[in-house]
Structures are given as structure tokens and as C-alpha cells.
Amino acid sequence: MSIENQINELREELRGHNYNYYILDTTVISDYEFDMKLKQLQELEKKYPEFYDPNSPTLRVGGEITKNFETIVHEHRMYSLDNSYSREDLLDWEKRIKKLVDGEISYTCELKYDGASISLTYEEGVLIRAVTRGDGIQGDNVTTNVKTINSVPLKLKGDFPPKFDIRGEIVLPYDGFAKMNQERIAAGEEPYANPRNTASGSLKLQDSSETAKRPLDCLLYAITGDKLGITSQLESLRKARAWGFKVPIESKSANSIEEVLDFIAYWDEHRHNLPYETDGVVIKVNDLQQQEELGFTSKAPRWAMAYKFKAEQVSSILHEITYQVGRTGAITPVANLEPVLLAGTTVKRASLHNADQIEKLDIRVGDTVFVEKGGEIIPKIIAVDFQKRDLDSQPTQYITQCPECQTPLIRKEGEAQHYCPNYDGCPPQIIGRIQHYISRKAMDIEGLGGETVALLVNEGLIVNYADLYELKKEQVVPLERMADKSAGNLIVGIEKSKEIPFERVLFGLGIRYVGETVAKKLAKHYKFIDAIIEASEEELVNVDEIGIKIAKSVVEFFSSEKNKALIKRLQDYGVQLEVSAEKLANQTDTLQGQVFVISGVFEKVSRNELKKMIEDNGGKVSSSISSKTSFVIAGANMGPSKLEKAKALEISIINEDEFLSKVK
Ligand code: AMP
Ligand code: ZN
Hints:
The chain is α+β, with helices and mostly antiparallel strands.
């Protein structure tokens, strides 16, 4: 046998053993035999480097070092999930989706694994890339580390599509986690706080041989890609399993919300017997075409819902209440607690929300309080243990002055939060606004981070975001932890931000209630900043999805002479304060006032492209047919009840080509 064949055969054999051991949980050969074969392969590979294979089983032991994890934009966005907590929540959800799709709906119930989400890309059956979720749009390339996880197949078996992404969760099972902690304690080190954070930390280790030592596992739950020939979620789980992935077998189909609730009730009790942490159940519409019809909100799929198991509670002592000032001047009270272990993490702080909450629960310093951790990162206080209260305890007096600038606080009609009105002089507000301006979803200024902003403000170099554009390298170099190179990068980063499109600049201005989506809507509608500055409340509320609260806030922002002066300066520096000519050229008003419903599957363009074309040409997309619908664009397999409804309401039904000729 040739050397190449010998190497390949060994690789195949070891892959098979890995699969049996890590995916199927069975062993065919002894550990010793396995190690010997692995060693043999390692030696051959070393001697004959010409047969290198980036997916050889020998690479499981790691060794490659990653200094900086490269940022990768996800080809398909990684969404979050909406949460539900009760039967009513689930029934409401079902009601919502039944309005949007035709036919019977059946569901898939899966456990919600609590780890670090990951997206794996396979091409021709080979693992090409592993990327963390990051902010859902882009994440970190952690391929070298993920390759060391034994249950991640490096090569697939069977009848897989040529290219697809598969999503899942990297978890650290309890016993492996406990063993790691025993070793740390024995070595005199601090134990890790919880499996989830340790799992995600493990993906970002620079030395992949360190990752290899951690007993991580990878559980998969979703396939994405084009032309996969899969029609349901259950089928995709089954197929992924057949291609060699570890797909937990607990998943089950349910034909009604009642059956979903049975699954939840069972696992709420039995989940503690699973080898890894779970924090809920994920319910998905099983039919992929229905999923496609339902689509996504800006945050999460409409076709999926997480059901969170009831949070754990503990009691602790409240030592102190401190107050934080946000970028909008909003004050948040924070409870500082005696550290206590809760759902696997040590908790020292809890949110108190606002003055009303403190008063309602009658929370006082020195109290023993009950703390609960739900989905939020920061736990909350849910009640006081009055029996343990000291006799001389005094009610909490909410602060009346800003803890940062001593300005008397105000509280607007109908709002729960107190505010520091010192817009121009309160340090956390000044810093917070600039930090928001430079943040990733706004101007995304490379080379400038939140701490540097604070430093620049504290050194008196800037007081607002327009000042950034006046910064000189010589001013920045002498700052703490700055060097010639980093100062240079900072200046270049600021310069480059002048290319950031208008909608993101608008978001970066930090107008209250103007988030990413609203900024997009405003930019698209008005096209120039001056048009927005001049818009009245009445005009603004006429823009799609802009309510009175937002309109008031926009008008208030631009009625300030100071803000107008800032905008003027940004304009003079060359920041994009209008929609670019190129973008405008692609936009028309051809479909102004027309409402489209898209249904079925299309040949030439995807649903998303259709949507974009409609919006770029001034039209609107709606998910359900009503008397307001102007056209239904029908593809193959349009739902029968939609068809009926469109006919009953006498709405024109057009096909893909007819639509395309409209926008040509
Ligand atoms: P959340 O982070 O609470 O918004 O929940 C969304 C996350 O749940 C996703 O990003 C996944 O990482 C994770 N997740 C865990 N198990 C599943 C599952 N079976 N299906 C979908 N997502 C899951
Ligand atoms: Zn203040």
C-alpha cells in the first residue's frame, strides 16, 4: 500500500472511532489501541508532510496559536429568540403565527442548551470555518479551537449538501466542568464560576492545545443554506445526525401547544439528569415553508419561541444601594449584595430598576432579600424577607441629586426613571453619548474604544462627538496606554468614519428612542438631515412606524441650537448626513403607496431580494393579506387559504416576472 493510502486509511479509521465514541457513546477499540493508531498517524504525517490534511484527526490535539481572532460577517444572520414563560405566552404566540400562515401548524420541541452558540460552515463535507455568534451579524473566527472538540465532525458522512452552515451550542458538561474545577482548586487556583462562561471562554483561548484539554461538547440544532432539499425542522435534525453531527435525541414533534406543554413539563423536571445545562425549551414551527412565510422580526424568528424554565431563587443581604447614570441621564439604582451562588454564578449585584420598585417592595439597606435570575444577565430582587428585618431599619430615601454632578434630579410625567437634566455637564452623559456615537452599530470607529473616549473627555480633549474630528495625533500620543501607532490608528479610524452611511450616523447621534430600525426608516424617508431637522411632529408620525413618542423626541433633539450646531460641524467635516447618490440612484418612488404580500417560493429572486426591491422603490411589505393589500406576489406553493383570501378581497395576484417588470 502506498504511504498516501496508508495515511488516508488511518485517518478514516480514527474518524470512525471518534464518531463511535463521541457521538454514539460506544467504544469499539480500547483507549490504548486508539492512542497507538493516532501516534502512528502522527509519525507518518510528520515524515510525509506532503500529505497534510487540515482536517486530520491528529489536529484534535491542537497546538496552533491564534493571537487575534478575525471578525467574520455571518452569511446568514444568527438571530436571538423571543422568550415565553407561561402557557398563555405560548397560546398568544400560536395565535399570532396562525394569522400569518396557512394550514395546520406542527411544532418541534428541543431543549435549550445553555452554552456558547456557534456557526459551522461545511463545504464538500469538510469543516471550513467555525464562528461565534458575536452580535449576530458578525462573530469571531474560532476554527482552530473548535477543531479540537471531538464531537465536531471534521469530515462528514453520507449524503450532505455541497455547502451549508449548521448552528449549535458548545457546552461544557457538568462532570467535565467539575473535574476542571477540582484540578484548579488542587493547584490553588480560583474555580470557574459556571459551565456556560467557561465554555465560551474556552473558544477564545489563544493556544488551541489548551482548548483541546477542555472536555467541550458541541450540540447541533439548525441547518441554514440555499437549496438544501429539506422540508422540516425534524428532517433537518435527522439529516444532521446522519451526516455525523451530535444532535441530541430528546427533540420531539408536537401537534399542539398542549403537547408542547407536556414536553416542557417533563423536561422541567428531568433536565437535571442531563449531562449538560439547559435553561428552557425551544419550540419551532416544523414546516420550513411555513417558517419562511413567517420570517423574522429585527431580533428573532417569528417561527420559534424559547420557553424559559422558572428561574432559581436565593436569599442574600443587601449591603448598599448605588446609583448609575446612563448616557441619556437616566438613573438606575443597583443593589450591592453579599456574594451568593445562584444558578451556577456568583451574584454580587442586582438591578433595582427605579424608585417605584424600591418603594413598592420596601427594600432597605441591611435587609435580607430574595434574588432571582431569569434570562437577564443582571439578576433582580423580587422580595424582602421581612421577618429578618432589623427593628431600627429606616425606609430607603431615594437620591435627589445626580451622584456624578450633583444636579437635582427630575422625573417626567408618566416615567418611572429619574433623570439628571445636566445634559451638557454631567460626565457619564457626555462620555456615554460619544461612546454610543463610536459604537459598532453606529460609526464603528476602529482604534477607538469606550475607555479611550472616557480618557479623552477626562483630559479635556473632547466634549462631544464633533470634537473627535478636530483631534490631532500629537494630542493623543501622550495619553496613558497610547503609543504612536495606536494614536495614528485612532485618527485614521475617525477619518474613515466619514464614509459611514447616513442611517448609521443618524443612529449614532443618540436621539432618544431612535434605535437602528427607526434611524433607517427616517433616513430612507427624509434622505437629508435638513429635512428631518425641519420635520414637525405631525409630519414625523406620518412616517411608517414612527409613533408620537419618537416624533416628540426627534423634534426636541433638533430644536436645540446646540445640537443643530453639532450637526452643522459634522456636515462641515464631511460626515454623511444624507443618503448617498449611489443609493438614491437605486431607489425610486415607483411603488409609492403600494402594499405587497409575498407568498410561496420563487425561482429568480429570493424573498429577501423581493422585499428589498419593494422597499427601495417606495413600496411596503406586509405579512398578511387585508383590504389594504395592493398586490400579492405569488410563487410556487402559495398557501391555499391565502389564495382564497386574496380572491375574496379581489386583490391582484401577480407572479415574479410581472413584479420584476414593474420595477424595471
Ligand atoms: P437567547 O440567547 O436567550 O436569545 O437565546 C437564543 C440562543 O439560544 C441562540 O442563540 C442559541 O445559541 C441558543 N439555543 C440553545 N438551544 C437551542 C435550540 N435548540 N434551538 C435554537 N437555539 C438554541
Ligand atoms: Zn449628572
